[in-house]
Amino acid sequence: MKINVTHDEYRHLIDMIYIADWVLTSYKSEEGPEIKQYQDVMQKFYALAKDMGMGNLIEFDKELNTYCETQEFNDTSECQQFINEYDNDSFWERLIEQLTTRDLEEELIGKETIAKDRDKYFERYAAIEMKYISEFEEYGLDNLAIKKRKPATTK
Question: What predicted TM-score, i.e. pTM, was given to this entire model?
């Protein structure tokens, strides 16, 4: 198969590959074999950089025996901005989701009717979620505190 890619399209492609690789590897202390297949594809496209007139963005590192992004790539790419926006949005969504779920589960202890009624459940979920959305939109993390829970006592 042959694909014709313009200079600008290739630049966008290596940016997308960089972002994908970041998603796959940024939070891993070790890269397992399940990621190798993706990095092999990345290397295949990075190897085309010189031919595409972008040897200044991707270069071969002889010590690592792999193609890597250059400092110029990092300086000129919008990738980090996209990654930062994604991280920020994900942080708030996950925080709100976790707090909402926690509060709803605590609220439903002993209230079987709400837990079984999907409409009531999601209505209550939405109300709690809105409380957190409003709070974080207005105050960010300023009012967030960690409190130590007392362990449940058994008799």
Answer: 0.75
